[in-house]
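stage 2 :: seqdesign
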């Protein structure tokens, strides 16, 4: 039911040209993400923004022979971010500091919250109709921050605000294939909840591996939930998951563009303003979302889940509600 990825990411032509802006294009995620977007033929106008270095990244990418123009914008240039955002269709926000060993995504909050708040204000003022794809962690809190800023500016459109949880989805596909000895490209795992630790819930019961041994399944779920720690530890203080996150961000951006283009049945999980658990005070939740010309076209239910997954969901909701409230309170205060 989910993750039907747009088919024509690297085709030779596209029905509609799209303007795409990356805010934080000089960083560890921003650079490979910008490269992948340069290779996407749906993108004909690619704008790269960062405090510094974006012009160099843009010059480098501009030598790649695809049908797009790339320009770099910096904070010290007059109207830098305004020019980067003017009339853009899609904004990706990977800006912020990466995790270091021992840090959780929530540890990043004090720094990244301010960065995301200011970039959201710039989007509200210069690109009020753009689809906004939030990558900056902690996503469970940064997406509500963007929502509150957009509301304060009178331009909030819940159908065009997305928390990118695609990394959890691709990790689930890869990790379950390693456990089961299958081809990861054929593994489709629905991942719901949020984008941090125990709020990440891979629904193994909805896969062809639902009879997996409990010990093996528990270890698999834990690895999906805390897969980012593997990378942080392996990089030994030199960064977090940048390359895999860039690929995940590019995949989701391509799906959003395919939806805007009117391609049928484009479905990806995403952390969005959702009705699924709003009665419990949870404003945002990740579940499969159908993407269309207006952004979110339909939010699917989580479907049938096992009793073990229900326990995970109950724990997820407790933490997720606090994460969301933390982001909302940050803007309101």
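stage 2 :: out
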């Amino acid at each position: 039911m989910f993750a039907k990825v747009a088919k024509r990411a690297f085709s030779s032509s596209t029905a509609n040209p799209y303007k795409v802006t990356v805010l934080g294009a000089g960083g560890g995620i921003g650079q490979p993400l910008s490269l992948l977007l340069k290779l996407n033929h749906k993108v004909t106008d690619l704008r790269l923004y960062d405090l510094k270095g974006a012009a160099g990244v843009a010059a480098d990418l501009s030598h790649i022979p695809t049908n797009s123009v790339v320009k770099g914008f910096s904070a010290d240039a007059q109207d830098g971010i305004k020019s980067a955002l003017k009339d853009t269709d899609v904004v990706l926000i990977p800006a912020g500091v990466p995790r270091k060993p021992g840090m959780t995504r929530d540890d990043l909050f004090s720094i990244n919250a301010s960065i995301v708040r200011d970039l959201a204000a710039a989007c509200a003022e210069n690109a009020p109709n753009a689809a906004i794809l939030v990558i900056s962690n902690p996503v469970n809190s940064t997406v509500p921050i963007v929502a509150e800023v957009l509301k304060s500016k009178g331009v909030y459109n819940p159908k065009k605000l997305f928390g990118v949880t695609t990394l959890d989805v691709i990790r689930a596909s890869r990790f379950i294939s390693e456990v089961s000895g299958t081809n990861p490209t054929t593994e489709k795992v629905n991942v719901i909840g949020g984008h941090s630790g125990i709020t990440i819930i891979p629904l193994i019961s909805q896969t062809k591996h639902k009879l997996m041994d409990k010990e093996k399944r528990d270890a698999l779920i834990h690895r999906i939930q805390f897969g980012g720690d593997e990378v942080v530890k392996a990089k030994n203080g030199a960064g977090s998951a940048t390359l895999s996150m860039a690929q995940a961000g590019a995949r989701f951006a391509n799906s959003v563009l395919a939806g805007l283009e009117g391609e049928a049945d484009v479905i990806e999980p995403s952390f969005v303003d959702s009705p699924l658990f709003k009665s419990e005070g949870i404003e945002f939740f990740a579940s499969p979302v159908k993407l269309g010309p207006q952004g979110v076209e339909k939010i699917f239910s989580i479907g049938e889940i096992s009793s073990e997954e229900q326990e995970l969901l109950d724990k997820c909701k407790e933490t997720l509600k606090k994460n969301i409230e933390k982001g909302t309170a940050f803007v309101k205060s």
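stage 3 :: structure notes
- The chain has two domains: 18-165+243-261, 166-241+302-332.
- The mean pLDDT is 93.
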